[in-house]
Write a structure and sequence with these properties.
The chain is α/β, with parallel strands linked by helices. The chain is built from 6 helices and 6 strands; from the N terminus they run αβααβαββαββα. The longest helix is centred in the first third of the chain and has 20 residues.
């Protein structure tokens, strides 16, 4: 789950908050279905430039935001059994222990969801493919600044990296 705990303060975010909220509800439903199948939820979340922060600080700050920005963080807050990795840049793999963690728990397939499709979700998915994971990116569980950018990113993931971009089941 990439950057799902997020203040959504990037340029243009206010224009896509409705899409983000819709994707958050889809992510929540998928997470519950996957937990019933025994899957582990791993949050790869940005620290938003606060280098001395812990994930709990990021979560509480985002949950305190008004409107959709806070609501999304409340909907997608991790359960105590979920795992969290803070990331310094776009990819969940870059400069994080994510690959080591996934290896230790025996993960072979990743379902990557989150925000935004054409940046952090895209780079995490491409890195996962290059590391040999079987990758799915369900489109209803992502959002981007424009539908054109989202469609282009998903198309590139499918054609160049053989990621599944089918709706989650």
């Amino acid at each position: 789950m990439v950057n799902v705990i997020n203040p959504f303060q990037f340029p243009g975010a206010h224009r896509v908050l409705d899409d983000i909220l819709e994707a958050a509800h889809s992510i929540q439903k998928l997470k519950l279905r996957m937990e019933k199948r025994g899957a582990v939820a791993v949050y790869a979340n940005d620290n938003y430039g606060t280098w001395h922060s812990e994930f709990s600080d990021v979560l509480s700050n985002c949950q305190a935001l008004k409107g959709v920005r806070g609501e999304v963080s409340k909907i997608l807050a991790p359960a105590p059994s979920d795992l969290v990795v803070l990331k310094p840049q776009h990819s969940g793999f870059h400069s994080t222990p994510l690959q080591h963690l996934l290896s230790k728990i025996g993960v072979k397939k990743l379902v990557i969801v989150g925000f935004v499709t054409d940046m952090c979700v895209f780079t995490t998915a491409t890195d996962a493919c290059m590391l040999g994971y079987d990758v799915a990116v369900p489109p209803e569980c992502t959002a981007s600044l424009t539908q054109t950018r989202k469609s282009a990113a998903l198309s590139q993931l499918h054609t160049a990296f053989s990621c599944s971009i089918a709706q989650a089941r």
